[in-house]
Amino acid sequence: EEEPNEAGLLFYDRLFDEMKKHDIEPLVTLSHYEMPLYLVNQYGGWSHRIVVDFFVKFSRVVFDRYKDKVKYWLTFNEIDSIVRHPFTSGGIVSERFDNVEQAVYQALHHQFVASALAVKYCHEMIPGSKIGCMLTKLTTYPYSCNPKDVLKASKNNQFNMFFTDVQVRGEYPRFIHRLFKEKNIHIEKQLGDDELLKVHTVDFISFSYYNSLVATENSEGMETVSGNTIGGVKNPYLEVSEWGWQIDPIGIRISLNDLYDRYQLPLFIVENGLGANDQVEQDGTINDDYRISYHEQH
Predict the structure, then answer these.
(1) Each residue of 35-53: pLDDT tens digit?
(2) What pLDDT digit, counting tens, does each position of 92-123 carry?
(3) pTM of whole model > 0.90?
(4) Catalytic one among 124, 171, 182, 271?
(5) 223 is annotated as an active-site residue
(6) How distant, in Å, are the alpha carbons of 68, 70, 72 from that of 11?
(7) Which residue out of 2, 25, 34, 78 is catalytically annotated?
(8) Is 34 a catalytic residue?
């Protein structure tokens, strides 16, 4: 489409104006799991390089429209989720690819490039703006002090922060190059991609945190929990919500420490909460003291 949807743009004009009336500072995510179906069917979602151009065009329209209303921006919501949810995060229909893993990591590279370009244009078009990345923070503990468990937890945490490594440090970490080699994954890059990633890094890191995870070398016969976005072995020291999420307020502090020690950038917790089967009273209220307690602990 050559022209944006004016009705959609007007909706956000009104929303941001109303927020300002109530002294609410908006933080806007450019892409939050809304891949247009046309781009999925026509190009295979983010696996096709052309989607970068569409995203940049979209971003520039949004930046120009709201440059006087929005100062804080995010590029992609939970960019790491493409490896767990290829369709939701990247418009990747697995059945249409012979090598899904190759398609996923190629799509991820395109998102990294698109993110860097969004950073570039945000800084150019909105002086004084701040634009960040967004990670699903999957802080993982070793189940025991067995070195094998410790190593597995370390590798899980290392992989989780690969996505922020690229957007903050501006390059793929060495362990990912080794992983690609082992999996026979070959990322197609265009001339200038590496420089884009290096020059146009994010201003801050935002993340979601719902629960921590546990890693063990051998999980056979062990009790498991569902978690939020990902489940695993049950941590015997933590409570479990009725939705199967383990409640770990200390984990959010550990997550903050890990991210700041690694990057020394401002941090922004953008998602945190408790899923529950709430009971609506006759007067329409919900007495969710358990949720209030959850947030107080965190």
Answers:
(1) 999 999 999 999 999 999 9
(2) 999 999 999 999 999 999 999 999 999 999 99
(3) yes
(4) 271
(5) no
(6) 16, 14, 19
(7) 78
(8) no
